[in-house]
Design goal:
There is one protein chain. The protein is an all-alpha fold. Helix content is about 65%, strand content about 0%. The chain has 22 helices and no strands. It starts with 20 loop residues before the first helix and ends with a helix. The relative contact order is 0.08. InterPro entries: TPR-like_helical_dom_sf (IPR011990).
Length: about 450
């Protein structure tokens, strides 16, 4: 389902990569605001361990964590519900569940009691999944219950026909299977088969009623089963009825990533070995809708792949994607400006391109190279090793061997545990260049 990204026609090699799962899903960086998991602020004391039974201590720890967590969520504006009301909602939900109140009725009553929407309760449930687990060295405590409570809240909200909750549960299964996303796997592990079946029934009902997000999710699940024709129908229907109005709870920053229908349809249409011209036109139209109406940077990125060589449209799409945080686009944009600065003939004699570059070329002689370095630095800071390699070469040409070595060291750093090196040849080249720099330093010292 990936698209081969555009490679800039340059004198040096541009590394071609498949669109990675993280880019496809438009994931937020792990350290961004309240989407990151906060650290626990208290520890279990020895006196507490001795004074309470394991069950009592677990109940105390979970309640204490929830109180502190909701205060943090309110302060960071992750939820619009006060910490006091949030705690009361959890308490009321658990009491009604003990009294065997129907799950859908339970959350509907809660929403009415606290003058909220069911979607507000779904958003509250998602934040519960961010509560850190306090380690229990003694091993006496029962498993924590905040995550199971969050899951039960989401399933109950789904039973009440809430779109967000339904998509979170089903996305947990889909993203676990298709991408091995750890955050999705955490939620999927605590869901039962019955939970998934119930949410799938709700999804089909909401899709039948014309919910664009549910139609898009329905298409993903159909495609996963190999039913591509039905998946295309769902994606097309989703695009027809999709509501581009921004809602405060969707997509929630603490929620799982979401794949919009325009990207899913385009990827499916272009996944064939030799897509027809009609399929390419439909894919482009879908992406243009997502780019212009949904302001989706990945749609802009994919649209650039339809251009042959740098054109005004290519530069506009690549700039939009890069400015929105797409790392590969930032790298490609940096390479384009770098080649344009080093080879004036590289800039095509196109009035549109010349007009777009005029602000840079008329400001200062080296302004294009400065732009190039800025975009390459952005990509390098995000861990893009080809960008680091380019910057190492540029700094070496400037005579700044210290900075060149710093970037080469970063290229040579091993990938995280369990991950495969994405650019093995660059690592080999970096070692060779590092050795050359050391030899040059020794000779100059002599």
């Amino acid at each position: 389902m990936s698209l081969t990204p555009v490679a800039i026609r340059a004198t040096r090699t541009v590394f071609r990569r498949q669109t990675c799962p993280a880019c496809k899903l438009r994931l937020l960086p792990p350290g961004r605001g309240y989407a990151a998991r906060p650290k626990p602020k208290f520890r279990i004391t020895r006196d507490q361990q001795e004074a309470m039974s394991p069950a009592e201590l677990r109940l105390y720890v979970d309640e204490r964590q929830r109180k502190e967590h909701f205060i943090q969520m309110v302060q960071s504006k992750a939820i619009d519900i006060s910490a006091r009301v949030s705690n009361q909602i959890i308490k009321d939900f658990l009491e009604a569940r003990e009294n065997q109140v129907d799950s859908a009725t339970n959350v509907q009553d809660l929403a009415e009691k606290h003058r909220l929407n069911v979607a507000d309760i779904s958003a509250l449930a998602m934040t519960l999944l961010l509560i850190p687990i306090i380690k229990d060295p003694s091993g006496r405590l029962p498993p924590e219950q905040n995550r199971p409570i969050a899951k039960d809240l989401l399933v109950a909200c789904s039973a009440a026909k809430d779109t967000f909750a339904t998509l979170q549960i089903l996305s947990a299964s889909y993203l676990s299977n298709e991408y091995g996303l750890s955050k999705a796997e955490e939620l999927a592990r605590i869901c039962s088969v019955t939970d998934f079946i119930q949410c799938r029934m709700t999804l089909d009902q909401l899709a039948q009623e014309g919910d664009g997000n549910c139609l898009a999710m329905q298409g993903l699940l159909l495609e996963e089963q190999g039913r591509k024709g039905e998946a295309k129908y769902s994606y097309r229907k989703a695009l027809e009825v999709f509501n581009f109005t921004i809602h405060k709870n969707w997509p929630h920053p603490g929620g799982l990533p979401w794949i919009p229908p325009w990207r899913s349809l385009a990827n499916l249409l272009l996944s064939e070995p030799d897509p027809t011209e009609e399929a390419r036109k439909e894919a482009r139209a879908a992406l243009e809708k997502g780019a212009t109406k949904g302001d989706d940077p990945l749609a802009y990125w994919q649209l650039a792949s339809f251009e042959v060589g740098p054109t005004p449209f290519w530069l506009r799409c690549m700039s939009k994607a890069a400015a929105s945080g797409h790392i590969e686009a930032a790298y490609n944009l940096g390479r384009y400006y770098l080649d344009a600065s080093q080879q004036p003939d590289f800039i095509p004699q196109n009035k549109g391109i010349m007009a777009m570059l005029n602000f840079a070329t008329t400001w200062k002689d080296d302004s294009l190279e400065r732009l190039a370095r800025e975009w390459l630095s952005i990509a390098a800071q995000a861990g893009h090793k080809p960008a680091m390699s380019e910057l190492a070469e540029l700094h070496a040409e400037d005579g700044d061997e210290e900075l060149a070595r710093e970037y080469l060291h970063r290229v040579m750093e091993p990938p995280p545990a369990g991950k495969t090196e994405e650019w093995p040849q660059l690592v080999i080249n970096a070692r060779s260049r590092m050795a050359d720099l050391k030899n040059r330093s020794r000779k100059s010292a002599v």
